[in-house]
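Hi Q.,

Before the meeting this afternoon, I wanted you to have the sulfopyruvate prediction in hand. No need to reply - just skim if you have a minute. The sequence and ligand are here:
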Amino acid sequence: MSMSPNTSPGTSNAALQQWVEEVAAHAQPDNIHWCDGSEVENRQLIEKMLDSGDFLEFNQDTHPNCYLHRSDPTDVARTEHLTFVCTRNEDDAGPNNNWMDPADAHKKVDALFDGAMKGRTLYVVPYCMGPIDSPLSRCGVEITDSPYVVVNMRLMTRMGKSALERIEREGSFVRGLHSLGDLDPKRRFIMHFPEELTIKSIGSGYGGNALLGKKCHALRLASWQARDEGWLAEHMLIMGVENPEGEIFYVAGAFPSACGKTNLAMLIPPASYKGWRIWTVGDDIAWMRLGDDGRLWAINPEAGFFGVAPGTSRKTNANALAMLHHDAIFTNVAVNADNQPFWEGMADDVPVTDWRGRPYEASNGPAAHPNSRFTVSIKQCPTYSDQTEAPTGVPISAILFGGRRAGTVPLVVEARDWAHGVMMGAAMTSETTAAATGEVGVVRRDPMAMKPFCGYHYGDYWAHWLSFGDKSHKLPKIFTVNWFRRDAAGDFMWPGFGDNLRVLQWVIERTHGNGDAVETPIGFVPANDAINTTDLDVSEQTIAELTSVSGDEWRAEMRSLAEYFESYGDRVPAALWNEQRRTADALK
Ligand code: GTP
Ligand code: SPV
Ligand code: MN
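Predicted structure with the ligand bound:
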């Protein structure tokens, strides 16, 4: 094995040094490169990918330092059926996860890693999830043979020298081993070993399958650690809502993949909302812990966005467009005649080349892949909150659970109390999206938007959530929201995007005991006129429909929820069953 001339000396952490050497001996890369995260290194990687064709340059006049990556056409989204949680005891992974015995899993993937990096460079990528000096942050090291993964991890995490220094100071780190393998889905596995704080992923170069700091570490392994240590690792955005008086309220929101977290986190207030401002802390993951003051404090473990491109337009999310004009990576988008990025929903433009690099033809389907994404540093967001770097995180006033449901679920419902809110989170259902392979638009259960990401038994997870109710009286209020109700013609009934601030305003009022509400069997909904509709083009009748609760539909929901809880056996906490029964009884 030869070492490249720019190979750095490695590390003083003996366990890390030894692991890298063992992996290298097994996977047999041509070179080893320890990443420092510098600008020079980043440039070298980009040049290398421009040479290999992994990166294509966008129009550098309109989009300086913006690049296009086309992933393998069979590798365009997370693959949940190939994702495993490998615990010694199968029950600990729970029915919500695919399980494999750890010894069998290691054997299976280790065989695939044998010689997998021949002809490639092995990159050692030290990273820190969370502000580099926060006690809430955790470090990891990803070993990968994909330079695309390295440049993405540099935008998505605090990657390089400072992370390695923290690892050398603290000693502990999550091990994430990744190889593109041969990209054949038959030899693709994303394996988690929570008891060993280890991840092994092979055969995919895409998103959550390959950027191991994100879903694998910051959700699946972190949720396991959080349960043991008394905190929460959640699939949540974090945003600050500043009112005209200058007070900022922080809201966290769990919506399933491609259901609106990025868009809500950086929304632009309606024109009539003079003096209101939005501050973006995070768009995908929140780590939350009780503070000494009894409030729940949240950090965003990530440093960038890996956001859904389609649907992003000047009208829906001008803040996202504004941050995508320089230093951004685009994956599987289309290209217009001027060599600029294109995707569906972007107004007034036409695609020339589709996401696979073919001349665009409508008969081939959408120009951009429905799960095409952009990667960009959070610092480029016009609504970037400097609290993103606060070592303590931000205090959360309200938690939103939001699904994508054409019917049944009202625009907004407030839980009676914490336990009821946990039940509402556990009862979440949502239509599937292109973020994972499989059919799109099928309603499935996705409790707390964590179905693909909870690293342990859902019954234990709900018990963990409930346990916070005993520890503090200053917990956030919990709400469910649904921006995606459709009318008989199939059109969205609620305008969504910036107008979602109208719902947030009511949410914030309610956290202060203000805001008019009506109690229903499923919780509190806004009273007539409680949602600010100034300059809103939605009829009173539609608002009434959006906030109405159908007894028949909800009785069916509660029956189906009972069946669902049954399938998790006796690990489902009694308090959750009580809440289900309380709601079912109220609906009688
Ligand atoms: P992940 O990154 O996969 O976890 O997704 P996300 O929850 O951040 O979803 P995102 O905000 O990227 O939204 C996904 C899709 O939903 C995009 O196509 C958006 O345009 C669309 N969307 C977001 N918010 C709204 C809304 O309020 N109303 C409607 N109708 N569509 C929305
Ligand atoms: C999601 O699917 O929820 C994402 C994108 O945020 S990925 O990183 O690919 O998981
Ligand atoms: Mn996500």
